[in-house]
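Quick check before the chapter quiz. The format below is the same one you will see on the exam, so make sure you can read both the input and the output lines.
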Amino acid sequence: MKYFSTRGHAARPEFCDILLGGLAPDGGLYLPESFPAVSRAELDAWRHLPYADLAFEILSKFITDIPADDLRDICARTYTANIYRHARTGDDPTRIVPLRWLEPGKLGLLALSNGPTLAFKDMAMQLLGNLFEYVLTKRGETINILGATSGDTGSAAEYAMRGKSHVKVFMLSPHGKMSAFQRAQMYSLADENIFNIAVTGMFDDAQDIVKAVSSDAAFKARHRIGAVNSINWARIAAQVVYYFHGYFAATSSNAQQVAFCVPTGNFGNIFAGHVARCMGLPVARLILATNENDVLGEFFRTGVYRPRKASETHVTSSPSMDISKASNFERFIFDLVDRNPATVAGLWKEVDAGGAFDLSDTPFFTRLPEFGIVSGTSTHADRLATIREVHARHGVMIDPHTADGVKVASRHAADLPDGVPLLVMETAQPAKFADTLREALGRDPEIPADLQGLEALPQRVEVMPPDVDAVKAFIAARA
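Here is the expected output.
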């Protein structure tokens, strides 16, 4: 499988090269030359596979430069009960990602947050850590990972990479904008290969710095800069797996359809659902859920993509979605404009200059229904009400991002064809957002035993202004 850039760079690297490279040299994002088709026979054969085996089958379609036995071993080491909490309660392999029905056969939660950092990012990041270690060891190379996080990506990346001899991690986060638990998960790590930088701004400022550093080809080559943000295609490929798993868990026949509601800020999680649908998974609808930062929802309603300035980005109680520049949206637009890299490059020239683009009067906007994506927005008041309702009706605590998903899903459920179950992608466990759970329910969420006392540990972080040169100097001194 060869890959190319959304902006048309001529090179056609294979998977292991783009794994280590992050952004393409022209600033675009890598995509496979085509999405592999999955046959009905393959769906039938995959339906009852353990999660690790399903991951191998799907990832094999995207990764053709790692021997099959090695890739199978990587999947087995990644998706194991040693890492995922629910799987420790029994020998059912589906408990890596269990499905919890709120309304049997109608509305369910796909539990993606059972990994070490209690967030869905672990599902891809643990795989990424093992892939990095494998490829770097084979090549005898080292790499310096640069990333930005609005809350969960950072801790998932650091836990996946901590202690790995071939990797150093430099993770940027918005100073004071994450929950206390999220900060503690990252800043309390004492591993010598982990470096945390708190930027005095918003997540978008941190993300802009990562893109600026990654676009400096000379600096990137000199210091072996790689990426673990969702701009890294391996993250998307890993997320495709749980859409197939969720489909199998919610249905009894491959003649059925399923809808997914996905809380998202960077568009990576829902883009993986788009890929699964393009591969042939019977997905009736993809429902995009946003918080008050409704840049993505605005596009699907109006055709206008208008990223906000950091000063315009709302600080909300679902902070991992406090994002106004969706780093994966370029991949979707690439598909929407018939995979025309010149069109994408032109649109993102406007975006990268701080502007916007409007597709409302183009044939591309009229094609949107073909992609099966609709959107909705949730507010702080919605979040609190939904957390209370789900707890009162079902005895289940959900985190605020998942609450955004449940709220938006409830608005779209009636529009689905009869008999189509709707799965909400759970994004994190409530323990990460105790303040909001306390406001909603008047009580603290339960914290897993191995993470109790985390916020009391010493923390190690460098607070810096959102300055590209300052971050470069910090990296250069430690890489």
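If your answer matched, good. The longest helix spans residues 121-139.
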